[in-house]
Amino acid sequence: MEREEAEIVTENGDAEAKKGFSDGSICGFESLHRLLQSSLSPQLFQEVSRMLLGMNCGRPLETVSLPDPAKALSSTHDFDLQAFSFRADNESLRAPRIVRVGLIQNSISLPTTAPFLDQKRAIFQKLAPIIDAAGTSGVNILCLQEAWTMPFAFCTREKKWCEFAEPVDGESTQFIQDFALKYNMVIISPILERDVKHGETLWNTAVIIGNHGNILGKHRKNHIPRVGDFNESTYYMEGNTGHPVFETAFGKIAVNICYGRHHPLNWLAFGLNGAEIVFNPSATVGELSEPMWPIEARNAAIANSYFIGSINRVGTEIFPNPFTSGDGKPQHTDFGHFYGSSHFSAPDASCTPSLSRFKDGLMISDMDLNLCRQLKDKWGFRMTARYELYAEMLANYMKPDFEPQVVTDPLLHKIP
Ligand SMILES: NC(=O)NCCC(=O)O
């Protein structure tokens, strides 16, 4: 639904407006960027885009033309497809290191009441053409959304959803390995993991599949939310894999899973281990986090001199049994709307527009990884970081007898 229908929505008043927005659109538009593009004169839109998206090497981000088969897949299977290019300055001693990176966002396919195997296989079926579009576009590194094989059922606290968990070499990994091999593509596959060797425990895990279809490694979500309906701590614990950076054929990558994006030290640690691209596969809803979404990753990309790919699922998932989360809200059967809006952020503060707020999508971006070091040289954030100050501060803070360093105005409690 785009402009014309949005106007009808506005004219028909509240009830229609509610209907229009319930699809997850912004007043009938797929994204803020598209709303602005349709509403502003070309000149104003250019200025506003410059302010909102920043400049890459002094220029607006360029779009990239994708091969016809990828475009055909996007129209046949109705997913948003966008592509951009982040440049870096030419260097005398290093050739450009351009990699093509993709992010996939999607809704679930079947109602949450369908048999679990059918639900999982239907998501596989939905993702196949989107992964094909990435492969035929020459994507080198592709990342899927958090817990992509299942509905984000952790709001319910019901244990039956644990059945979706798989070992790292399970069915979903085998499904993804075929694509990795076929397209010479590194694929990050975030799943609910069952750790069979350690008492069948569960983890929220990203499996990293190398471009030869090999399992390169895994990373387990470091920070587990306890906010709103995000009752994930009922299912799994904080990860025990540290902050691994995976050196792949196409660059050094890491994964900061969803809620970890609110933790600056988590981003920092991936940077200290040398990440050039950090992926943030997520599942988050509008009411809770949408104002934070365009800011946090972009800020982390700047602070840590690396690229970030942010992914959020789309749609509203309705569960069979009502639940509450002790926050005073009446019982309900859905999490709210997962608002998609996947995008890339670059170390020079530029970023792409976002994918649709309600449709499946594939966001592709070329990125010259030389930009990471160029930004380190220019701004010197690593060099000026004063890590020793913070190491000492944190070591003190961790002690049971820690005293906050506060200087109290002696007059504070004396003068009325
Ligand atoms: N999946 C997840 O960790 N969501 C938590 C909510 C948020 O971080 O926006």
TrEMBL record:
Boundaries of every CN hydrolase domain copy: 99-369
Keywords per UniProt: Hydrolase
GO-annotated molecular function: beta-ureidopropionase activity
SUPFAM superfamilies per UniProt: Carbon-nitrogen hydrolase
Record bears the keyword Ribonucleoprotein: no
Reactions catalysed: 3-(carbamoylamino)-2-methylpropanoate + H2O + 2 H(+) = (R)-3-amino-2-methylpropanoate + NH4(+) + CO2; 3-(carbamoylamino)propanoate + H2O + 2 H(+) = beta-alanine + NH4(+) + CO2
Pathway named in the protein's UniProt entry: Amino-acid biosynthesis; beta-alanine biosynthesis
Record Gene3D superfamilies: Carbon-nitrogen hydrolase (3.60.110.10)
E.C. numbers: 3.5.1.6
Family: Belongs to the carbon-nitrogen hydrolase superfamily. BUP family.
Protein name: Beta-ureidopropionase
Phylogenetic placement of the source organism: Eukaryota, Viridiplantae, Streptophyta, Embryophyta, Tracheophyta
